[in-house]
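agent: user wants the full assembly modeled, not chains individually. Plan: 1) parse entity lines 2) check alphabet per entity 3) run joint structure prediction 4) return tokens. Steps 1-2 passed, two entities, 843 residues total. Proceeding.
--- entities ---
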Amino acid sequence: MKKNILWRLSLIGITIVLAVIFFLPNTPGFQYMPEWWRQNMPNKGIVLGLDLQGGLHLVFEVEGDKAVEITTERYASRLKELLAKKKLTADATVSGLNITVSPSNPDIKKAIEDGFPTLAPVETGSKLVYRLSDKEAKRIKDTSADQALETIRNRIDQFGVSEPTIHRQGENEIVVQLPGVKDPKRAIDLIGKTAQLEFKIVDDEAKMAAELPQTISSGEEEKILEQFAGKIPENTEILFEKKINTETGVVRKIPIMVKKQAALTGDLLSDAKVNIDSRFSEPYVSISFNDAGAKTFEDVTAANVKKRMAIILDNTVYSAPVIQERIAGGNAQITGSFTMEEAKDLSIVLRAGALPAPMKMLQNVTVGPSLGRDSIEAGKMAGMIGTIAVVIFMIIYYRLSGVIADFALFLNIVLLLGAMASLNATLTMPGIAGIILAIGMAVDSNVLMFERMRDELRAGKTPRAAVDSGYHKAFWTIFDSHVTTLITAAVLFQFGTGPIKGFAVTLSLGVSINLFTALIGTKSVFDIINSKRELTKLSI
Amino acid sequence: MIELIKNPHIDFLGKKYIAFIVSGILSVIGVIAIVQIATGRANLGIDFAGGTAIQFKFEKPVALHNIRVAIESGGLKDFDLQDLPSENKILIRVKKADIKLGRISETIENILKEKMPDNKYVVDSTTEIGPKVGGRLRADAAKAVGVAILGILIYVAFRFQFKFGVGATIATFHDVLAVLGLFFIMGREINLILITALLTVAGYSLTDTVVVFDRIRENLKTRQRESVEAVMNMSINEVLSRTIITSMTVLLTSLALFFFGGEVLHDFSLAMIMGVIIGTYSSIFVASPVVLLWGGKRPFAKK
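--- prediction returned ---
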């Protein structure tokens, strides 16, 4: 009997010591520990979730269909080149996912089918219609998600976020978690940008161009586009330049009419970096083209002197300077009254390259750091008051036995925090609720045992016998009631999102530890009291 | 020895029809709530319905009315406002998921900058959920409730007998329906956090039921000559005080969470409070009567 108690006591002692060691990194005391301790002992502790430390949780969908469309267009222009090289006169037009080639004759058909095995014929009668084979389309969708993931990782690396989490989810979704980011809008912009850079010639000569309003409020773009739909020349489109009032932060938009066909695109870039304008000390991004890009740029500028050239990123005009003269050498500047940060971000996305397809944001949960701090404070407060209420209630109702139950409760809290720290579990706001509920449930096992003991005492048993049989008879009830809570916690873990997973973890840990503290902890105390001398009365 | 109720002899099962009427009404409200949720007419949270929610913290106090006028004049129509005047916080929710994400939060921030230039703010939190994610989260929540209830049925049926499993499951499902129905009637938001609370309630309310069932099983084995109904009544009376006390301790912590736990967990703790009370009621008035009405052979009879 005595040996048995000693064994259980040392088990409790060891678990407490372990819990304290694991939880230490979460306390201010950790910084006073010697260097070797901080290096070699557990030093991570409980990790705060995004909802508590502030940060972003983003889910993007890579629009694979768009990647297929883009590739189709690329195929069409390569197809035209091939036919021209073979001296076959034919025209190829793209509509959606179809490439239509006319005229239709066996030579052209053979040339296409030999040159592009991944194109599948849709129609080969009077018209030749091709589209990418299903297998090829699927491959493109797949790789576009991979490429997007890689590009995003690149951008975030250059942006500099500590401990980002970036991974693929399902077929075409990308999840990005950025803890502790101070400027969420900037991060979202940086990640979500397709970063498709285009240079297009502004069509100021067309009659309709003069009828466009000078500026509009942000949000009125659709109205303008509707108003001018069908009225502007077919080979032009209306894009908008964004102007931000630096004092008030108010955004206005300037409509600009440009040629649809891009004169030059960003895939011909070789570098992009931030420079500061010496006169106005305003940052701008200087870009350099590769050889092919430099040549095209020179030709385009030569042919369009005195016209304006719009520099467009993802269909937003950054600036539209007038071309003064032919520009050789392959260098250009993107200005647009940037802040230093904006210029830096722009250079990052240009260097990291464009996404293979646009992405759609499916979900954005952003929590500012102050809300998280408030939540933790409120959680501590509620936890403390809840604990005190339960402790007092148990002492009033069960007297000395209540004190023993309260000891088990504290053991429970210490071990729960230690267990979470040892697993480097993520604490979320619902997780705090889980801990507080676990405190309420922690004494339940003791209540069940105490009530059982009272039953036994009423039946006339001695205190020691009442304690023993009370424990035995209550065991399965306690076990069953804990398992049912574990079942729902497991379900929550399986189906829940981040914060709710945190809740499931704390609740199930709390309930499991409760089994230990009730069956080993409380019982040991009773046994110690009983082993000294046979009790004649039980304070319960 | 302090005792809650000394030696109770209450005829719980005799009141089963009154209990069934009360529970029937609660459950019907719950079912109506589910139908309204499924058809999108309930007050669904952003996470289920899709849309945008932004919480602003202003430097100076703001009148809700001024914000409403400002946003309306900015061209936004379909939105809800909620405030926390003690901390100058305003929550704006726009339930329209078909617009490109990011557009609405940008528009709102722009409007506030334009119309209230002398009251600076910080954005406490932004939540934007697209329709695809909203639909997925809705489906997941429904699946989770289903799987949890099935798990409970299997476990209790395995540990006791099938009809006890049915009794426990009906009592548990009843609690979930009742809390959901009450939230619906009160016009509170139905969101992911509420579903979490509901599942916790399901797990916890079962604790009380298991305590009662355990005693019924024990007494049925030792008191072969008494009627099942009499044994059930006696068992419920015997464990009455522990049923109430275990609920009371969780109620205490839920109340602490409700009053001090902060804005994020307010509705969660409210659901827990309701759930614990209803769960205690159902383990006494619903679970055992269902087993009794299920009929069949005397459970746990000696062979």
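agent: reporting back. Chain B has two domains: 13-43+133-294, 51-129. The two ends of chain B are 40 Å apart (CA to CA).
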